[in-house]
């Protein structure tokens, strides 16, 4: 595995995540600033309302002062002569009775019903749909980049496994070929000695060499087969472990993407080298 390329990919990915986080923080700061300005405006209106109330209270106190002066002037006036009138009792007429009995009772007019205008939620729905669309776009982009990252990562892992497998098998085959060559050389020397001597001792020696060569070949083939089997088992285990880790990382990426769709915030990772 090329560690330099891996580190460069990690640094580039860290820069992308940092840029996304900076953009999200900028949006949050702008939103907080807008909220602060909206909360400052009611305070100004409240100050204007308080000043208007103070002015009205001052005018009311002035009117009360004038009324107290008028009451004092009335109290100091000389009393007027009171004319007492004797009450006269008038006999009720038939027309009066008729008017009192026939006159209909006037009921108070009903107040007009207040009309409630229908609430227009189109703008709010559009705003929510835009926000959901933006968070979905951020989550999809982050998920796509992360899945591409782990894809490249495990492509490098599989390439390393294949390279290791090829190297180990080639080494085992070279060991087997070396045993075969040594056996052929030893047998050739034994035959030369037999042809040069042509006696019972040389023949026994040739038979002994052939038996030794056959045993070595058998042991070499057994070692080769066991070594190839061991290499294949290691490779299968490494591939299974890599596939399991890739699936787990994929699940974590999807879970994080779902959280981004809810919160709209991209997680910032710390790359330590």
UniProtKB/TrEMBL annotation:
This protein's UniProt keywords: Coiled coil
Coiled-coil stretches: 147-248
UniProt domain Remorin C-terminal: residue ranges: 196-269
Polar residues bias spans: 87-103
Pfam families, alphabetized: Remorin_C
Keyword Transmembrane helix attributed: no
Residue numbers spanned by region Disordered: 30-139
Origin superkingdom: Eukaryota
Basic and acidic residues bias (residue ranges): 32-43, 66-83, 117-127
Family designation: Belongs to the remorin family.
Entry protein name: Remorin C-terminal domain-containing protein
Species in which this protein is naturally found: Stephania cephalantha
């Amino acid at each position: 595995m090329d560690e330099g390329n891996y580190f460069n990919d990690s640094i580039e990915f860290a820069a992308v995540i940092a840029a996304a986080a900076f953009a999200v923080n900028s949006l949050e700061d702008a939103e907080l600033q807008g909220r602060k300005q909206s909360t400052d405006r009611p305070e100004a209106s409240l100050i204007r309302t308080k000043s208007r109330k103070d002015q009205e209270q001052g005018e009311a106190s002035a009117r009360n002062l004038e009324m107290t002066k008028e009451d004092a002037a009335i109290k100091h006036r000389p009393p007027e002569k009171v004319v007492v009138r004797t009450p006269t009792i008038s006999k009720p007429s038939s027309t009066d009775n008729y008017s009192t009995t026939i006159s209909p009772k006037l009921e108070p007019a009903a107040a007009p019903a207040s009309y409630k205008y229908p609430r227009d939620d189109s703008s709010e729905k559009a705003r929510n749909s835009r926000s959901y669309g933006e968070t979905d776009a951020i989550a999809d982009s982050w998920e796509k980049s992360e899945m591409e990252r782990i894809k490249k990562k495990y492509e490098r892992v599989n390439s390393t496994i294949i390279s290791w497998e090829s190297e180990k098998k080639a080494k085992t085959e070279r060991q087997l070929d070396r045993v075969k060559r040594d056996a052929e050389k030893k047998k050739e020397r034994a035959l030369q000695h037999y042809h040069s001597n042509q006696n019972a001792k040389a023949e026994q020696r040739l038979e002994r060499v052939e038996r030794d060569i056959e045993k070595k070949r058998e042991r070499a083939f057994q070692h080769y087969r066991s070594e190839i089997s061991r290499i294949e088992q290691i490779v299968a285990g490494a591939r299974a472990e890599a596939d399991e880790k890739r699936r787990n990382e994929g699940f974590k990426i999807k879970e994080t993407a779902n959280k981004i769709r809810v919160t709209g915030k991209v997680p910032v990772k710390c790359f330590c080298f």
